[in-house]
Amino acid sequence: MGRTTRAAIRVGGLKGREGLKEIEHNLIQIDGVKEVQISLPESTVNIEYDPGVIREEYLKRTLNSLGYSPYVD
Known about the structure:
This protein is of the alpha+beta class. It is built from two helices and four strands. It has one domain (5-11, 21-70): Alpha-Beta Plaits (2-Layer Sandwich), CATH 3.30.70.
């Protein structure tokens, strides 16, 4: 079993339960993603994933393709 890491990605455009379900549904299906938690008040998507399988950049691109733009820190 590979190691896991967490990414807290702030995104724009988070609103409503349907959007949350869409994000969770799409991210949890990606190989290497273990857990997805979303904070609507903080506009943050918290993802636990295996960096040996998937890169954080891919997760950000996936969020962007769903219409939720990651903030650049």
